[in-house]
Amino acid sequence: MGLEAVRTTCPYCGVGCGVLVTPDGKGGATVAGDPEHPSNFGRLCSKGSALGETLDPATRLLHPKVDGVRATWDEALDAVASGLKRIIDRHGPQAVGFYLSGQLLTEDYYVPNKLMKGFIGSANVDTNSRLCMSSSVAGHKRAFGTDTVPGCYEDLDEGDLFVLVGSNAAWCHPILFQRMVKAQETRGAQIVNIDVRRTATTENAQQQLTIAAGQDSTLFCGLLVYLVDNGHVDESYVAAHTENFAEAVANARAIAPNIAATALRTRLPADEITRFFRRFAATERVVTLYSQGVNQSSQGTDKVNAIINCHLAAGRIGRAGMGPFSLTGQPNAMGGREVGGLSNQLAAHMGFTEGDLDRVERFWAAPNLVRKPGLMINDMVRAIEAGSIKALWVMGTNPAVSLPQAGDMRAAMRKLELFVCSEVVASNDTLRARDGKRDGESGTSVHLPSQGWSEKDGTVTNSERRITRQRRFSDAVGEAKPDWWATSQVARRLGFAGFDYADASEVFAEHAGLSAFENEGGRDFDIGRFAAIGQEDYEGLKPFQWPAPAAGETKRRFFSDGGFFTPTGKGRFVAVAPPRLAEPVSAAFPLLLNTGRIRDQWHTMTRTGLSPRLGAHIPEPFVSVHPADAARFGLHDGGLARLSNHHGSATYRVMVTPNQERGDLFAPIHWNDETASDARIGSLVHAIVDPYSGQPDSKATPVTIAPVAMRFAGFVLSRRRIPLPRSSFWAWSAVPDGFAATLASDDDGADVLAALRADIEAGVDEDQGGEAGRIEAIRYADTR
Ligand code: SF4
Question: How far is it, in rounded angstroms, from Cα 771 to Cα 130?
Fold first, then answer.
């Protein structure tokens, strides 16, 4: 590859920042923000800035493997195709599942969805976006008729009030948060932060509302009642463009009839609620931004609709500086929604209606188009446990860590007759879940090497509906291939026509064609302008927002003058259910566990875990505890603690902080069995889901906590992560030229020292021909 600067996109969060990369010709690259990209105008956050430190090929999966043995691509693809065919012939298409990822490019997403829904004939294709923002999708569909984000990032430059709900945007969407802070500094815009804890976002907020877990809908029902009772409803907008207003107001009144009742349920001071309601009512240009704190709930869809109800009532939607705004977590969660990556979507924002089914069937010339939605990932796990799903293909995600009750997924995976994993890294918890066959276990495991961020070509869509090219700037490592290619090859081996793509541009063109097919403005997602795009134009494609129809105007915003995609064309108010916790605390499990991200790590750390700069931010898995709870449970700051419940347990460093509310705990999602001894938080999270979206409730699981004694402490510096026994606490983080691990145990550390000694001896023998097999140990003991 050349050494010219390449315009591409950051692969982390849904902000979708443009990145300018200059390869160094030796596999590395310098990275800067793209000053011409309208999402970030040259800025990058800590994660984006450190992208150049994550390109190390040492951790990569270089070649296909079948049952742990290196194979050629032909052998591996034959194993996948023959395994799928055998299972489909014997058990039908419902015995197959695909689990995709918001990390995939749109082209990589489009092809497996087409293969499953149109040709294999199953809709058991879901994505890890189910864990991220499917409640926003369901809320949008209920209110707007489609999954439409009504606003755009310019609203953050033009708004006067930003209400953040369940969103630590200062850490999780930093570049957008900086736009809000700039509006605050230059124009006096205000920020209200609604969250169950005080976070980095609180530091810039004019008002912090530390709300009781699960009560967001109560607060927004109270706001709707306040707007109605105090004359702040846009009567003409409501009358002309909406329906179900009276029912929603009556319902809101039953949940939050007045400020006192709202205060009681939300545990917020009444005067703070009044201040917030007055602020919202008095500010025309208000944007309400929400993310995982809203979505990851057993009532996430209702929370989304409670927020949208207030914007519809005030007529504050689709105009400059105002509207409800879902901040998507992943770089291409939106692209996945566009191709139909969720099991209850079809493709191109179409659903399972007769009209849409007929249209997609004809467009794809699909021989086996599925007629109804498939299983969401949570139900897929149960189906694997029950033996009804026998083949699973995972692409670009690590469900053995990230799913709720993650231990169930690990156990279920061992039952599969065929497990296929398209991955960038050589080792992670999911790839290793089937290591070492036990008695009675059979089945085939196929690992397919995927191209990484620097190597692949395609598009992603960010939170404001903006599609940007991700461009390759380095040669593929080993034999890594694009995921769309691997899927197409399997489709062809299964005998299906329609998968002869020469490159990613052909996949994109087909996707654009489907979006425009028989679309006379009745479907929001239309990028028909690019249905005939060729390779050259695709290469030069500039960032654009959809809709981008072949003819007619594009739009920056939706719904200022109605035009909803419901059967009546009206926006729907939704009567939400009374807020409640999915699972109350008990004497055995008296604390509520909240899980989330930290500023400098991404998902399960397979990339950010390689950067010393990012590792320096928070090097160990931690649990935040209120001082009163620390005293109650005998914990101290910097000590170790074990969290546990019916589903699992995990061990963390204790961080005592008044930012945490009493009765609540917070622990990050990132650490896993590769990076820590016992810190997979997903193993504790209950698998309870929202009834409309199927999104798991990851923010409020009852647990208990207890101190872990620690007699031995130490650290290791090493060129690589050394396997250590799980009997001790350890956590690896990247440091310059290697890794550091902190160690602790409640014995004298003999196990961990023996493991280190064995590894060093093995390493010395191997690297130096046994010449320098001498190890000097320096030991210090504090006998107290
Ligand atoms: Fe990447 Fe998100 Fe940071 Fe932008 S804000 S640089 S997209 S992680």
Answer: 54
